[in-house]
Amino acid sequence: MATHRESRAIGLPAEWLFDVVADVERYPDFVPLMREARVLRRHADAYETEQSLAVGLLRHRFRTRTELSRPNAISIVSVDRSFCRFDIRWDFAPLADDRCQVDFAFDCELRSLFLMPVLQMLILPMAGSMVSAFERRAHFLAAQAGASPGLTPAGHLAVVDRQQE
């Protein structure tokens, strides 16, 4: 079983961090080892995805379900047959001066000993760098949106996408 816990104060509002974490289809742009992420089905406060992690020739594809409790929490679970347990929990608590406290919890257990290299080479390093990757992404999007006050990270991404078409 692999676990990782992290907590830190980040100099952006909770809504910004929530939006960046909720935008799963952008993960390959900034999450280490993430090669693909696509939403298969959307629900009112949830979505189901297929994701792929890779390092070298080692690749692992799996499905997740994400529950959104805007702007306080995001819970990601997988009932993919390769996992006995796969749970990620993000909690966002507002602090003074447009800052927020981010708590990240990751728990993973694979069914097969054959898949242990996936856990050791892909999943554990990714979990250890997750909060930093999302913090960098949120600051990057906030800096880009500085010219457009009131724009959320998700709104900014939609504007950039339309400009590229």
Quick overview:
This protein is α+β, with helices and mostly antiparallel strands and 165 residues long. 33% of the residues lie in helices and 43% in strands.
Strand element count: 7
| Number of structurally distinct domains | 1
* Approximate helicity band: 25-40%
The separation of the N and C termini measures: 44 Å
The low-confidence runs, each spanning 5 or more residues with pLDDT under 50, are 156-165
Would you tell me the structural class of the helices and strands?
A: alpha+beta
Q: What is the CATH H-level superfamily?
A: START domain
What's the level 1 CATH class?
Alpha Beta
Largest sheet: 7 strands, antiparallel
Q: Spatial order of the strands in the main sheet?
A: 1-7-6-5-4-3-2
- How much of the sequence lies in strands comes to 35-45%
Provide a descriptive summary of the structure in words.
By secondary structure, the protein is α+β, with helices and mostly antiparallel strands. It has a single domain (about 1-165), classed as START domain (Alpha-D-Glucose-1,6-Bisphosphate, Chain A, domain 4). About 35% of the residues lie in helices and about 45% in strands. The protein has a 7-stranded antiparallel β-sheet. Helix 1 (about 15-20) packs across helix 3. The radius of gyration is 16 Å and the shape is globular.
